[in-house]
Amino acid sequence: MTSTATTTPTTTSTFGALIRTGLIATVAASAATMAVAAVGHAAGISLDVADAPIPVTGFGVLTAVFSLVGVLLAALLSRFARRPRRTFVRTTVVLTVLSLVPDVLADAGAGTKALLMLTHLVAAVIVIPAVARRLAA
């Protein structure tokens, strides 16, 4: 008598793994955006927008807030979307591009605007792929 073991690979992760990965990516992205802002400031780029300075920690806080919104979006898509990963990536890429608009319009110098946009892109490059990997294709 022979038996054959059948395994079914899972393409989805558990909700807990999605949240855990999202939280880790959020912390990493927050640290990275603060580092980018600090290096930019040390290199002489102003962190002033409309004559009000943005503290380096402000970059981390706002990155954390919006990254957590992205994790919440991923959690909802994992439950309700037919193709959660594809929908998440498309949505977050569009939102990332839209997040650059206020930077372009900001009352700030060109270097400051570029630094602001760079921090958005750094956060997106860290969070989007990490979270997307935890969603079903």
Automatic annotation (TrEMBL):
Membrane-spanning parts: 23-44, 56-76, 88-108, 114-132
Pfam families noted in UniProt: DUF6069
Keyword annotations of the record: Membrane, Transmembrane, Transmembrane helix
Tagged with keyword Iron-sulfur: no
Domain of life: Bacteria
The UniProt record lists the keyword Cell wall biogenesis/degradation: no
Name of the protein: Cell envelope biogenesis protein OmpA
Species this protein is from: Micromonospora jinlongensis
